[in-house]
Amino acid sequence: MNTTPIQEVDVRLLPPRQRHPIIFGLLGDLAPGDALHVASDHDPQPLHMQIDSRYPDLFRWSYLEAGPDVWRVEIRRQAGGGCGCCCGH
């Protein structure tokens, strides 16, 4: 059982151009089985598509809250996913 606390990032507090780079940096630090919670002021579906495109089958995405004012998602790194080297994929 994974007991690592889930990190949360509220991108509503960040300038728009910094949001995705910060999220991708945090995702790169996740160990298999770890998760990141992201809060946004809009449906983060474009982020979901970018993650799926960049890291196929590496992360699982689930909505925790679906608007209309706040969207919260959990992005969890799949156990055993990725290439197994040190690159974070």
What does this structure look like?
This protein has helices spanning 16-28, 45-54, and strands spanning 7-10, 35-40, 59-66, 71-77. It is α+β, with helices and mostly antiparallel strands. It has a 4-stranded mixed β-sheet, with helices on one face. It starts with 6 loop residues before the first strand and ends in a 12-residue tail after the last strand. 12% of the residues are buried. Residues 8-77 form the DUF2249 domain. This is DUF2249 domain-containing protein. It holds the Pfam family DUF2249.
How many separate helices?
Answer: 2
Task: Please give the share of residues in helix.
Answer: 25-40%
**Average pLDDT number:** 89
Outline: globular
Structural class: alpha+beta
Task: Write the SSE topology.
Layout (H helix, E strand, L loop, with lengths): L6 E4 L5 H13 L6 E6 L4 H10 L4 E8 L4 E7 L12
Parallel strand pairs: 1-2
Antiparallel strand pairs: 2-4, 3-4
Key phrases:
DUF2249 domain-containing protein, 4 strands
Summarize the structure.
InterPro entries: DUF2249 (IPR018720). The chain has helices at residues 16-28, 45-54; strands spanning 7-10, 35-40, 59-66, 71-77. The chain has 89 residues and is of the alpha+beta class.
